[in-house]
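Below is a filled-in request sheet from our internal design queue. Each sheet records the structural input a requester submitted and the sequence that came back. We keep these sheets so that new team members can see what a complete request looks like end to end.

REQUESTER: design group, bay 2
PRIORITY: normal
MODE: inverse folding
CHAIN LENGTH: 193
BACKBONE (tokenized):
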């Protein structure tokens, strides 16, 4: 494995990792066809790896009232772009393309969601995510009313804010470590398999 994946140590091989972490990485490799670089970077600290991915999965895999996987990933892409995190924009942009079945949407959301061909619901969602995730905003009556008006529930609002907050931390960790996106992410959802 290449040390250029992080400024910090990464495992020389998966065999040197604790069994539970190795199993997680191998399962991701089997599903995706490759090991996302962030898994190797975060394996540097096993306890933090476990906590990070437990919270990631709790947020991103949880069934929401009305918030879809594509919408959660749009939140990740918009906030990650604002935080200048290339890894998360590229990796989660691939997921936006896959979940939305739109090969252009992730790029449009990353650059400027206000000019992207998205619904009012998505525009309000991303405005709120950026407000919470990058401007240290707070949920107030005005925001709650705006989000309710476009069909979000109180639980959805929690999810939007939690995803924006979690990926703010993720963006900063990836920028700290200098972890580049895997080349495989760039084509996912753009070209047929």
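RETURNED SEQUENCE:
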């Amino acid at each position: 494995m290449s040390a250029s994946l992080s400024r910090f140590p990464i495992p020389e091989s998966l065999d040197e990792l604790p069994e539970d972490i190795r199993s997680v990485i191998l399962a991701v490799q089997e599903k995706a066809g490759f090991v996302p670089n962030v898994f190797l970077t975060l394996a540097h600290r096993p306890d933090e790896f476990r906590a990070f991915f437990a919270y990631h999965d709790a947020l991103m895999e949880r069934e929401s009232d009305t918030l879809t996987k594509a919408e959660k990933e749009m939140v990740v892409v918009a906030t990650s772009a604002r935080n200048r995190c290339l890894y998360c924009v590229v990796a989660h942009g691939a997921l936006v393309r896959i979940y939305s079945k739109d090969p252009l949407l992730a790029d449009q959301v990353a650059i400027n969601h206000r000019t992207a061909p998205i619904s009012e619901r998505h525009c309000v969602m991303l405005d709120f995510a950026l407000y919470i995730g990058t401007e240290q905003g707070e949920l107030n009556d005005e925001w709650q009313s705006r989000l309710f008006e476009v069909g979000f529930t109180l639980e959805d609002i929690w999810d939007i804010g939690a995803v924006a907050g979690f990926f703010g931390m993720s963006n900063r960790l990836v920028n700290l470590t200098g972890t580049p996106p895997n080349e495989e992410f760039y084509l996912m959802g753009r070209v047929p398999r």
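SHEET NOTES:
- The CA atoms of residues 147 and 157 lie 7 Å apart.
- Residues 154-177 form the longest helix (24 residues).
FILED BY: M.R.
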